[in-house]
Amino acid sequence: MIEFFESIFRNKILVATLVSFVTAQILKAIIVLIREKRFDLHRLFGGGGMPSSHSALVTALAVSVGRYCRIDSPEFAISAAFAVIVMYDASNVRRAAGEQAKILNFMMAHWGESTPNVVGRQLKELLGHTPLEVLAGSALGAIIAFLF
User: Fold this and answer.
1) Which of 25, 63, 98, 109 is 20 to 30 Å apart from 69, CA to CA?
2) Which residue positions in the chain have pLDDT lower than 70?
3) What is the pTM of this model?
4) 3-class state of residue 46 by DSSP
5) What are the CA-CA distances from residue 94 to residues 41, 66, 126, 127 (Å)?
6) Cα dist. 145→6, 81, 85, 122 in Å?
């Protein structure tokens, strides 16, 4: 069992990928703490916000694969395509879903006493990322990948 965990931690690609994700999540909590003067535990585990942890993860993956497997490898092509899809989704599809959730939450809050019990709770609004948040996450992922 110990050999299994040792082999995981010897995988520089995997370690860089995980470190970039965790670093982005921690930075989200720090940024909220500085901006809003409050600690938000949800920022450590939730999606959305600055920087994009998904973008950090997939960029670290693609950059690491490019470094260790070469950029002309099929592995790099797969990881780069995967990164583009994830970052597009974060800044377009998931962001649009978050904007729709804001509108629906507003409508439900202002519907009055006849509000149907369709949802039962507010929809999650912080789902996606702005292009700047995606870019920041991607830069963070690339930097961390080069450190490993």
Assistant:
1) 25
2) 94-96, 98, 112-127
3) 0.79
4) coil
5) 21, 27, 9, 6
6) 20, 17, 19, 37
